[in-house]
TrEMBL record:
Coiled coil: none annotated. Pfam families: ThiF. This is THIF-type NAD/FAD binding fold domain-containing protein. Residues 105-360 form the THIF-type NAD/FAD binding fold domain. Belongs to the HesA/MoeB/ThiF family. The keyword Transcription does not apply. The chain crosses the membrane at residues 14-34. Its main location: mitochondrion. One of its GO terms (biological process) is cyclic threonylcarbamoyladenosine biosynthetic process. Gene3D superfamilies: NAD(P)-binding Rossmann-like Domain (3.40.50.720). It is a multi-pass membrane protein.
Length: 504
């Protein structure tokens, strides 16, 4: 080995090659080491530039990317507008100019109405097509304090329906886009921007007071069902005035838009799902909503199907920006969210200023629900007696509100057998087990009846069903067509899914 090294080093060419190889290795190692050190420092600097989330920070982490990006660098015009707005909010703005700008509202609402409106504090949750138009109308009408809550950013596709966004706003948070643009219109308005996702966990803060005063009104312009239900239930339970915008997607007829109680809203999937979830929480009416009665039809827009390649990527629920947010494209005619948003703002302005107005009454059918509950009680007592149990004093774990929920939200006011909507009642679908009476508490007998056990029929159909199936030996297949059996199966499965949302 030593002799080979001696010969090699004695050769000039070999020496040059060896020197080059060693030098290359040394230089390469130095470069890689330098790059590694520089990368380490750059990562450290980047991490150091990210502010810590303190106790005062209420934003909710959305996914691995976080919320919308921060406010972009303002232009000269934006800086001038922001400076004017800052002065105006401190009172450095001529009151006569404000009254001149609000002159048409002033003569319409009277001095007292406008004064009340100007002192109001309104929260707008959801700052897309509906929320942006509502916020713009409120600011232009004189509302002095507006809190904007939305986690999302302006996109190119937002521009067909957003009230104030421009190309320059694409990529910026929606809440700051609205503030920046509306400050150029009403610089005296106080905008409280919350670039956050609304959630039940943070509702106390997000819907909290300003200067010790609670919101005069809350506007729900959310298009996600979970957040929407959480917001409306919170407002209802805490007695905060609220109005909700239902779905503007796939709608095109402005003559079919109404403001009414949520119990009267129809022909809208978002409204139906919201109403059902709220009713499961014990909220059946008392919330005004903007909704459309327009029905789908041939040639009309509908929710686009999810491409097959998206299903191949994994669980569909993981494709959305947030859990439970829709991942399919909802066709939206740009004019319709504007109409919904302006209708919402119109209602809020009239309510706060005390201007006379009316909207569709709720469907009060409490007497009918009481009658159906009494009929169900009687049916359970007859079944108990037929099985050899003492029926007197038997209790059923069903309330009139439960009856209303089943009739309206599950069976849509129609018999599962014939589709008729008169002389309705609720009846067990399956024959109960022999021990369907709970006697564990002395002196008390309860029927082990669940909502998923019940179906809606006419009284005549229920009488036949009770006689031949619940008390007799007939099978369901002997009495009903396959389509009815499948419909009942689907209703039971559907209610089992919704049962997890019911209040305990």
């Amino acid at each position: 080995m030593s002799s080979w090294i001696s010969k090699t080093t004695a050769n000039n060419n070999a020496q040059l090659i060896t020197t080059a190889v060693v030098s290359g290795v040394v230089v390469g190692s130095a470069i890689l080491g330098f790059q590694k050190v520089r990368r380490t420092y750059r990562v450290a600097d980047l991490k150091a530039s990210i502010p810590d989330i303190g106790e005062e920070h209420h934003a909710t982490r959305l996914n691995q990317y976080g919320a919308a990006s921060d406010i972009p660098a303002p232009s000269k015009e934006d800086k001038a507008s922001a400076s004017l707005a800052a002065k105006a909010r401190k009172g450095d703005y001529d009151e006569d100019l404000i009254l001149e700008q609000l002159a048409r509202n002033r003569v319409f609402l009277t001095d007292g109405g406008l004064e009340t409106l100007r002192a109001a504090f309104v929260v707008v949750v959801g700052c897309g097509g509906v929320g942006s138009h509502a916020a713009a109308a409120l600011a232009r009408s004189g509302v002095s304090t507006i809190r904007l809550i939305d986690f999302d950013q302006v996109t190119l596709s937002s521009l067909n329906r957003h009230a104030v966004a421009t190309l320059a706003d694409v990529g910026s948070p929606k809440v700051h886009c609205i503030r920046k643009r509306l400050e150029q219109v009403t610089p005296w308005t106080h905008f409280d921007c919350r670039n956050e996702l609304f959630s039940e966990a943070t509702a106390d803060v997000q819907l909290g007071p300003v200067d010790g005063l609670p919101p005069d009104f809350v506007i729900d312009a959310i298009d996600n069902i979970d957040s929407k239900v959480a917001l409306l239930n919170y407002c209802y339970q805490n007695k905060l005035p609220v109005i909700s915008s239902m779905g503007a997607g796939c709608k095109s007829d402005p003559t079919k838009i109404f403001i009414g109680d949520i119990s009267a809203s129809t022909d809208d999937p978002l409204s139906k799902a919201t109403r059902r979830r709220l009713r499961a929480l014990g909220v059946k009416d008392g919330i005004p909503v903007v909704f459309s009665t327009e029905k789908p039809g041939p040639g009309k827009a509908s929710l686009l199907p999810l491409p097959e390649e998206e299903f191949q990527k994994g669980q569909v629920g993981e494709l959305g920006v947030l859990p439970d947010f829709r991942v399919r494209i909802l066709p939206v005619l740009g004019t319709m969210p504007a109409i919904f948003g302006l209708a919402v703002a119109n209602h809020v302005i009239l309510e706060i200023s005390g201007y006379p107005h009316e909207y569709l009454p709720s469907k009060s059918r409490d007497k009918m629900y009481d009658g159906i509950l009494g009929s169900l009680q009687g049916a359970e007592e007859r079944l108990a007696k037929d099985r050899g149990h003492e029926s007197q004093g038997l209790r059923i774990p069903i309330t009139a509100d439960d009856v209303g929920y089943l009739i309206e939200e599950v069976f849509h006011g129609r018999s599962i057998v014939s589709g008729l909507s008169t002389r309705l009642c609720l009846i067990r679908w399956f024959k109960p087990p022999r021990d369907f009476i709970d006697k564990r508490t002395p002196g008390q007998r309860n029927s082990l009846l669940r909502l998923t056990d019940l179906v809606c029929m006419t009284k005549e159909e229920a009488t036949k069903h009770e006689k031949k199936i619940l008390k007799g030996d007939k099978r369901h297949e002997d009495l009903y067509e396959k389509s009815i059996l499948e419909a009942v199966k689907n209703k039971i499965r559907e209610e089992e899914i919704f049962a997890r949302f019911r209040s305990l």
